[in-house]
């Protein structure tokens, strides 16, 4: 594989990871917290409905999990493509 093909594969994997993370974030924050909130209002979590929980706490927790997942996965991609910092 040439350097240009390897570079394209690396950036393709990077952009795919970013897009997947953004879709998950948008689904949780906008989808569950705003759009689907009326459907989730009958489910109780911690004394409040699930839609409110996603809007106030769930989206933040998912966002933090996405940050750690992205960092872990990018370290793997860096090692796979030989651009790690080690």
Largest sheet: 2 strands, antiparallel
Give the ordered list of helices and strands: HHEEH
Q: Provide the spatial order of strands within the biggest beta sheet.
A: 1-2
Q: How many separate domains?
A: 1
Specify Rg, calculated over alpha carbons: 18 Å
Count the helices. How many? 3
Keywords: Membrane, Plasmid, Transmembrane, Transmembrane helix
Domain Sodium symporter small subunit: 8-84
Organism: Tritonibacter mobilis F1926
Protein name: Sodium symporter small subunit domain-containing protein
What tags apply to this protein structure?
79% helix; mainly alpha; 3 helices; two-stranded antiparallel sheet; 86 residues; elongated
Describe the structure.
It is a single chain. The two termini are 22 Å apart. Helix 1 (3-35) packs antiparallel against helix 3 (50-80). By secondary structure, the protein is mostly helical. The mean pLDDT is 88. It has helices at 3-35, 37-40, 50-80; strands at 44-45, 48-49. The protein has one domain (13-80). It is 79% helix and 5% strand. Strands 1-2 form a two-stranded antiparallel sheet. Strand 1 and strand 2 (48-49) form a beta hairpin. It comes from Tritonibacter mobilis F1926. The chain crosses the membrane at residues 17-40, 52-72. InterPro entries: Na_symporter_ssu.
């Amino acid at each position: 594989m040439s350097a240009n093909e390897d570079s394209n594969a690396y950036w393709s994997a990077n952009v795919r990871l970013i897009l997947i993370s953004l879709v998950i974030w948008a689904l949780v924050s906008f989808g569950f917290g705003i759009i689907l909130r009326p459907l989730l209002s009958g489910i109780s979590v911690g004394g409040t409905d699930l839609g409110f929980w996603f809007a106030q706490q769930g989206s933040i927790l998912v966002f933090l999990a996405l940050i750690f997942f992205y960092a872990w996965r990018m370290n793997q991609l860096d090692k796979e493509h030989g651009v790690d910092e080690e």
